[in-house]
Amino acid sequence: MPKFTTGPIENTGTPSIEVLLKALNNSSANTAIVQARVFSLNGVKTLIFESGPLTLTPQSSIVIQNVDLSDVVQYEVQFEHNLTGASKNKVQFSSWGFDLNGELNPSQRIVHAELSKFRLK
Predict the structure, then answer these.
(1) Based on C-alpha coordinates, what's the Rg of the chain?
(2) pTM above 0.70?
(3) Cβ-contact 88, 68 below 8 angstroms
(4) Contact criterion met (CB below 8 Å) for 65 and 51
């Protein structure tokens, strides 16, 4: 399963109070199963949100969740999906931080091209 990470995100200065997680399935034929996790990195890496496996039909998108970041100084978002072969690059993810006023925090806007692939051993 392809896995992606934002890497560590600093949530100071103008902090985000929530992060919106999105997924897009550009495959014309394959249904994808997607999952997302958010970790607080305040000292010890702690899971603060995990979506169940979500079904994403071909040519569709979904808002996975708005996750509360009220007391989170640093965080990481991880995404994964089940497609392989020619379809593995058809699923894309993004995360969007929003401040106390509900405004987009541009420094915490992470689109798919900015995510890093990783592998758990």
Answers:
(1) 14
(2) yes
(3) no
(4) yes
40-62 residue pLDDT tens: 998 899 999 999 899 999 999 99
pLDDT at residue 33 in the model: 96
Q: Is residue 106 exposed (0-12), middle (13-18) or buried (19+ Cβ within 10 Å)? A: exposed
3-state class (DSSP) for residue 112: helix
Instruction: Name the burial class of residue 60, with classes exposed (0-12), middle (13-18) and buried (19+) by CB atoms within 10 angstroms of its CB.
Output: middle
Distance (Å, rounded) from C-alpha 36 to C-alpha 94? Answer: 10
Helices (H), ranges, 1-121: none
Place of tokens 């592998």: 119
